[in-house]
Amino acid sequence: xxxxxxxxxxxxxxxxxxxxxxxxxxxxxxxxxxxxxxxxxxxxxxxxxxxxxxxxxxxxxxxxxxxxxxxxxxxxxxxxxxxxxxxxxxxxxxxxxxxxxxxxxxxxxxxxxxxxxxxxxxxxxxxxxxxxxxxxxxxxxxxxxxxxxxxxxxxxxxxxxxxxxxxxxxxxxxxxxxxxxxxxxxxxxxxxxxxxxxxxxxxxxxxxxxxxxxxxxxxxxxxxxxxxxxxxxxxxxxxxxxxxxxxxxxxxxxxxxxxxxxxxxxxxxxxxxxxxxxxxxxxxxxxxxxxxxxxxxxxxxxxxxxxxxxxxxxxxxxxxxxxxxxxxxxxxxxxxxxxxxxxxxxxxxxxxxxxxxxxxxxxxxxxxxxxxx
Length: 373
Hints:
Number of domains: 2
Largest sheet: 6 strands, mixed
CATH architecture of the largest domain: 3-Layer(aba) Sandwich
CATH class of the largest domain: Alpha Beta
Structural class: alpha/beta
Strand content: 5-15%
CATH topology of the largest domain: Rossmann fold
Radius of gyration: 29 Å
Distance between the termini: 32 Å
Low-confidence stretches: 76-80, 86-102, 226-232
Number of helices: 11
Mean pLDDT: 81
Order of helices and strands: EHEHEEHEEHEHEHHEEEHHHH
Number of strands: 11
């Protein structure tokens, strides 16, 4: 897949609903995408104050692979900062549209900027028409689990909220989800990482997001590429063969000879430079191989340790794999390597037996990358 993966954010915050930090949510997602490993493969498109009449046009114009709704869902709580329709707005909406207590949906805007509810059935019907393009839908709004289940009839991966969710939790969940997805993670893993991010931030809402997913632990957008076995030894490239140099040329009975002393001096200098470069390259590859060997052992230790939770093990193993893959490349990205090493240090900070190998890897990699041509 060579085209960009387009994320379409549909944001709606009607004037008669509690005000949400939707701008902060989009800014945070964009910042993570710009730092991600596959940042060049993603494009974020946002539309604000979305009206009901804008929905189909937005999907037609942008043909997104991911649709992200940020705003209010139909619910009962009245607390400001929750992503649900406030009681007064909900009452007004019910009175003006003759909705019953069983009607639920997502809140968009009308021509006056006030709340307008779009029913669950209508949303499901809309996504049925775009199921060829759309692979994932994230409903970042309170009480949107019912809508997510309906949309899931046509879209492989859909996330919604089973109750009210606070602004802070909604922003962090979305940010962590896209951060993982842009490294080549599966929808399932990105969802789990996002939920764990809420736990790590001591936000007690990790059970609020609910995933409906027909895909397995795949790479949904084929971002990653198959690489050689990470445990296979690296073989330094041999220096290019020296071209033959003629010191004389004969034309009939006449021979033209160059200065043998000058030729020998030039050739000797060239040989020294080649030897130095080859020695540095060989040393760098040896350091990288040593780092890879340590990482292979570390991955085994992570799998068997009692010092990490099951999720933390999977997260750490994923980071180790990313680092192994990057170090296998002819010219590893130093900034990306540094970023992954720092992330590993944080993951294993409390487990001394596992943190020490990471420090060894960091030193070996720094030395190797400094000497690579």
